[in-house]
Amino acid sequence: MSRPDVLERARELDQADPLRAARSAFVIDDERLVYVDGNSLGRLPRAAIDLAADLVRRQWGASLIRGWNDHWLDLPERLGAKIAGLVGAHADEVIVADSTTVNLFKLSVAALGARPGRTGIVSDDLNFPSDLHSLAESAVLLGRGHHLDLVRSADGQTVSTAAIAAALSEDTALLCLSHVAFKSGFLHEMAAVTAAAHDNGALTLWDLSHSVGAVPVDLEASGADLAVGCTYKYLSGGPGSPAFLYVRRSLQEQLTNPLAGWMGRASMFDFDLDHVPAEGIRRFLTGTPPVLSMACMEPGLDLVAAAGLDAIRAKSIGLVAFFLELFEEYLAPLGYRLQSPVEPERRGSHVSLGHDDGLAIDLALIAELGVIPDFRPPDNLRLGFAPLSTSFAEVAELTMRLAQVVVDGVYRKYMSEGETPNRVKAT
Ligand SMILES: Cc1ncc(COP(=O)(O)O)c(C=O)c1O
User: Which of 82, 183, 282, 382 is catalytic?
Assistant: First the structure.
């Protein structure tokens, strides 16, 4: 396909896209910028601008302390209920709080407490390092002989359900995995993996950070016990927006939040010295929520809910299919390697490309070609396709610029920089 043909094809795909109007719900100041990092920080929903102004001026400025009763105390549950609708959970099974890592700590320690006598924690080496750090340190902290065992990926991209099942035993207390792997985009089979854990009597804890808002998730149908996830990626909650946690209803009363605090008490304003946990999901709260940041995530949640996850997933698959088609023709001959599963059912909404000069290419794309991807060492350019805001035209431009940066040799002047750019947070 010639370049004009590619652009024409992209225009046709955009016209036929049932979600094309969603792009205008986001702030896009620079139409030439190709933003393929919405899987790290989603674009700003327009509605969040007025909401933020109202929050600060009226809710904080005029309501003052009354704001807690008027608007803020129930925010963690109210927004949790909206997220529940996106992950196949009941409204009273999800709550917004803290960061993903903190929630993972709370739920993993709670789960280990609910499986006394078992010492195994199983994960895989595709999991996000922060999750593994938290699990490993929790094992040490608990001082009861817990150990973290990692299933190793044979190809650096995928881990089979059979390999996970083989690592489980009657000593496994907890299986903790990222639903979509942060680097390769590999998508675990949640229901089958959860069933394997349950066959061994273990609990499951899923990190949904790279799937929520992009991939349909059905926690209830999958039998999942626990989950956490962040809201600043495909949910467009904003930089540092708080995370969420999910605890299956039937488990809530059995688990103890190891970070007990007043917000998770049955009666938070009696200031009694005994800690009586709240009933239900609220017991997993700890301290005061970051209200401004938390409230600003609502417009993003509403956009995802309005579009619907089936439509979002269909668009995501379409965007990646278009990219992969162009990849073969334009990028593979230039030394780019596909480092993600090809089959859509085995992949989330991002794709990783390897290249021997990946870091220099990443730096050149950002500095000179108006493309924002992200980079994971040693050679991984990660391209996130955010179905609500990424257009097919953007995918076409992305491919052309990935080709141009190599053909014109623009990247060569960045070859000495040699270090991971820290100005772009790549998670
Ligand atoms: C899969 C995954 N898990 C956990 C985290 C850490 O999240 P937080 O910084 O909210 O603790 C990230 C960060 O982006 C992530 O991608």
Answer: 382
φ and ψ at residue 126, rounded to 5 degrees = -90, -10
Q: Which of 105, 128, 322, 336 is catalytic?
A: 128
Task: Give the phi and the psi of residue 327 in degrees, each rounded to 5.
Answer: -55, -50
Q: Which residues contact 200 (CB under 8 A, 6 or more apart)?
A: 168, 169, 170, 172
Question: Is 101 a pocket residue for ligand 1 (Cβ < 6 Å)?
Answer: yes
Does 375 qualify as catalytic in the annotation? Answer: no
Give catalytic status of residue 233 as yes or no: yes
Taken in order of first residue, the domains within the chain and their CATH numbers are 3-45+308-414 (3.90.1150.10), 73-306 (3.40.640.10)
pLDDT band at 408 (very low <50, low <70, confident <90, very high): very high
227 by DSSP, 3-state: which? strand
Residue 207: active-site member: yes
Q: Tell me: the pLDDT tens digits for 105-147?
A: 999 999 999 999 999 999 999 999 999 999 999 999 999 999 9
To the question of pTM greater than 0.90 for the whole model, the response is yes
Q: Distance, CA 179 to ligand 1 centroid (Å)?
A: 12
For residue 418, the model assigns a pLDDT of 53
